[in-house]
């Protein structure tokens, strides 16, 4: 479905946006594909999504990676986001670097999901599932990363039998129903399994204190 017949204001806005995108890419020595289908979809995205437009300008290399990798038009398996974050967080040790990885990954994947929604590559059910899977992966990987960081300071939280304990995170509302949309809040409940003191290093704290810090 082409963009012929759009109103003059939209047409003028598209011309201006395409000029800015072209200038941005040229300034960084980057080239977008000249495939007609891609360019038509890009027009649609630029017209109807300020988020995609501003993201392309902010991170042109990231957008080009989405295009050249084929991810822009690819449907993901449910575990794809978790695997991506595992790879990108490999070797990362500082919280500031972890945040940077999460923010870049979020931008990349939200552009991909919005693009597929706007261009008809994904239906409503797949879009909601993608957004829910993305949120799940971020919550899971962020908590695992921060849990390990705290364990390096306070030791691993243990239960009364000496078994390792982790916080339980429950996704509520639209996330729990797998219906997260682009503007949804994420509602979480945190549950601590057991509350005796953690072990060792002279800096032991209760599990409740550990998980509150987490």
Would you mind describing this structure in some detail?
- With 214 residues, this protein is mostly helical.
- 60% of the residues lie in helices and 4% in strands.
- The protein is built from 9 helices and 2 strands, in the order H-H-H-H-H-H-H-E-H-E-H.
- Helix 6 runs antiparallel to helix 7.
- The relative contact order is 0.09.
Q: How much helix, percentage-wise, in residues?
A: 55-70%
Strand order of the largest sheet: 1-2
What's the β-strand tally?
2
SSE pattern: HHHHHHHEHEH
User: DSSP strand (E) fraction?
Assistant: under 5%
Query: Which secondary-structure class do the elements indicate?
Result: mainly alpha
Uncertain runs are none
Mean pLDDT, rounded to whole units? 90
Give a short account of the largest sheet: 2 strands, antiparallel
Count of individual helical segments: 9
The separation of the N and C termini measures 49 Å
Cα-atom Rg, whole angstroms?
22 Å
From the spread of the alpha carbons, the general shape counts as elongated
Give a topology summary.
Layout lengths: L7 H20 L8 H13 L1 H9 L1 H10 L10 H10 L5 H25 L4 H31 L13 E4 L1 H4 L11 E4 L15 H7 L1
Antiparallel strand pairs: 1-2
